[in-house]
Amino acid sequence: MRAPSSELPIQFHGVTVTAGGVTILDDIALTLAPGPPTVLIGPNGSGKSTLLRLAMGLLAPSRGRITWSGLEHVPPL
Description:
single chain, mainly beta, globular, four-stranded antiparallel beta sheet, 77 residues, 1 helix
């Protein structure tokens, strides 16, 4: 499934996620732009689902910010 092109690019600017004192993602800088699909691969527990939840706006980063088409979105607490 692809994001509508009106919401792209999705940009991660120095995004870090911590939970219970454990750093799940650390200082992520990533741009998801229109074009071919992007594939996330990695071992269990590497943060793939956390990254997707951030990209969908379901989770707020502990640090950094995420923008959709240049606009910042703050997920509900």
